[in-house]
Design goal:
The chain is an alpha+beta fold. It has 13 helices and 17 strands.
Length: 358
């Protein structure tokens, strides 16, 4: 999650360096993990009725109507997970920048094939230029379609339903569910497990995110973890793509911490995590209760988040504005087709021409 580039332009950047292959595929799936942690433990959480009222619901099906991609028999479960960067409420004190409104600073499509244990998470870079379809705001106002709109601005301009509609239009993949978590929820998750340990091989000083780390091993609390995954200055070329390595590193460290602590085996700690997450959680109406989350958790019970494959949507630097990216072809179309048909994703569809200088 990072301060939106639309409010804080990066300015002149260094020319991208040659990519390191190991960095091309890594992308943040923390939000997916958070969802699965809550869902997998949902069978116990429903006993705590006070948590149920924490979850906010959005009727995506009603907002989108019938003009949507077909639900294919082999398509499994597809969930759009958004990280909201609203600066309001509990987020105001998290060093997240001073911009109005909220944006979907992190977005990924989580694909869970039927009857399998391995899932795929496809991240959509926030600076991707897309065609926004005609959408209706929550107040009923219709907003016309527009080309070359930055992906992370759609949330604030039209609302979450339009983000879902945009993703479905660009991918041809029908979203079964929508989940959103904000900055405060991220911070609460890390604090609830007592922090996460990371090791960095060089000093990192980022005035924008607030991160100040010396080379070595550090135990990060929630606020520091948020700074860590938001850091891009001094990493790669300073773009949204350049921080992929840090985000992947943190995700793996968090997975390791959760496995070590056996959180789902500790009712008290599980409740603490559920309380912090549900208070910051917005879902589609099909998941907007603990019992529904529990049912969903049982349906994907075989999925191990640590085996989830993470892929960044292949993008190329925009020819008009090199500070923005566009979906790379034919890689993107090949990737989305594989998800629609529940097929293996070719290695060629995982390679992104734009690498962020990693």
């Amino acid at each position: 999650m990072t301060t939106p580039a639309v409010e804080s332009p990066r300015g002149t950047r260094r020319a991208p360096k040659a990519a390191k292959p190991r960095r091309r595929r890594g992308r943040w799936i923390l939000l997916s993990l958070a969802l699965l942690v809550v869902a997998a433990g949902g069978t116990g959480y429903w006993l705590y009725s006070d948590l149920d009222g924490n979850i906010k619901g959005v009727d995506i099906d009603k907002a989108l109507g019938d003009n949507r991609p077909e639900k294919l028999p082999t398509s499994g479960q597809n969930i759009l997970v958004l990280g909201s960067d609203s600066r309001a409420g509990a987020n105001a004190s998290l060093h997240t920048g001073k911009v109005s409104g909220a944006r979907s600073d992190t977005a990924l499509v989580m694909h869970i094939p039927d009857g399998r244990t391995k899932a795929v998470a496809v991240s959509i870079p926030r600076d991707t230029l897309v065609t926004r379809p005609t959408c209706t705001k929550p107040d009923g106002t219709e907003v016309a379609s527009a080309k070359r709109v930055m992906f992370n601005s759609i949330y604030s301009q039209v609302g979450p339903a339009c983000v879902v509609k945009t993703v479905e239009q660009m991918s041809g993949v029908r979203m079964d569910h929508y989940v959103e978590i904000d900055f405060a929820g991220f911070k609460g998750l890390v604090d609830a497990i007592g922090g996460v340990t990371v090791t960095v091989d060089r000093n990192i000083h980022d005035k924008s995110s607030g991160l100040d780390l010396t080379a070595g091993t550090h135990r990060l609390d929630g606020t520091q973890s948020l700074e860590f995954v938001r850091t891009r200055h001094g990493i790669g070329d300073g773009s949204d793509l350049g921080r992929i390595g840090l985000q992947q590193q943190f995700m793996l460290a968090l997975l390791s911490e959760i496995k070590k602590q056996d959180l789902l085996g500790s009712p008290a700690k599980a409740y603490k995590i559920a309380d912090s997450l549900t208070a910051a959680l917005t879902t589609d109406s099909g998941l907007a209760s603990l019992t529904k989350l529990a049912e969903f958790g049982r349906s994907v019970n075989g999925v191990d988040p640590s085996t989830m494959e993470t892929i960044m949507l292949p993008v190329a630097y925009d020819k008009v504005d090199p500070n923005r990216v566009v979906a790379a072809e034919p890689q993107s179309s090949t990737l989305w087709k594989a998800l629609r048909t529940d097929s293996d994703i070719p290695a060629s569809a995982k390679k992104s021409p734009a690498t962020g200088g990693s």
